[in-house]
Structure prediction request, 316 residues.
Amino acid sequence: MKNIICIAILSVIIGCGGAKIDQTASVSHFSTDERVGGILTYLASDDLNGREAGTEGIDMAAKYIEGVFRNNGIKPYFESYRDTLTNFEKPAYNVVGYIEGTDKKLKNEFVIIGAHYDHIGTADPVSGDHIANGANDNASGTTAVLEFARYFGKFGKNKRSIILVLFSAEEKGLLGSKHLAKKLKEQNLNLYAMLNFEMVGVPLVGKDYFMYVTGYEESNLADICNGYAKEKLVGFLPTAKEFNLFQRSDNYPFHTEFGVPSQTFCTFDFTNFDHYHKVGDEVSIMDFDHMALLVNKTIPVLKDIINAPIREIEYK
Prediction:
């Protein structure tokens, strides 16, 4: 009970945005291991029972995400933050926030920043544990997007408009992103790019880049990111191409519906994490320093992409 109370208190603190941050402070120190740890610890706690789509556990996660959006000045894109899936048999929701752009012309172009917040619920038990907490998959990506939301909600000054999405039912076949991509296409959304974050809880080992992007060879996204970062932030993972990861996360429905650059950033390379869809995907094995560094390295890149005077990212 004590642990549950502590987690609940921590979730309130994180959801309210925490301490005020000087807008002039360096972005390199915006996120911290303590902050990302607090978010991820709640999302991957046993109380949420693995966040399977259509369950009480994922509803708790949705409420938490709504709190982060609300307390950082992020408006609902639709009438409410929750967008009900039309392609899943149980009540399930994407959580969709919106930050209008500041430029009279560029605000009509949109950048989607997203991650899925569902997991598989339970799995084969190990030592009596049957909850597949989904810390890396994908509480880690959700945590990163919530930190991006906190930054842009308070300090972004984004010229283009931003849609921040936490997708449900990714584990059921990308259903949340398929639903939203189709819906936004029917509304003739002017989408520039969809940037997705998946399994970023542990660092790559033995690579000369910090993270990779799926569909690397499909576009110039990696080059654009590295130019803005002034380092080799994004690289090519051959295994990602071998296993066709480009088509296996929530970026892909936006690629098929809109035909614009839609790709996933990731630091899972099949060698640095052994608990995919298992009960061992626990908070205790996540690297919070790595996650905070990923957020802090990525924010300036996202800012430059969102504020660029022209559409620089394009398919080859």
Q: What stands out?
A: Residues 1-25 have pLDDT under 50 and may be disordered.
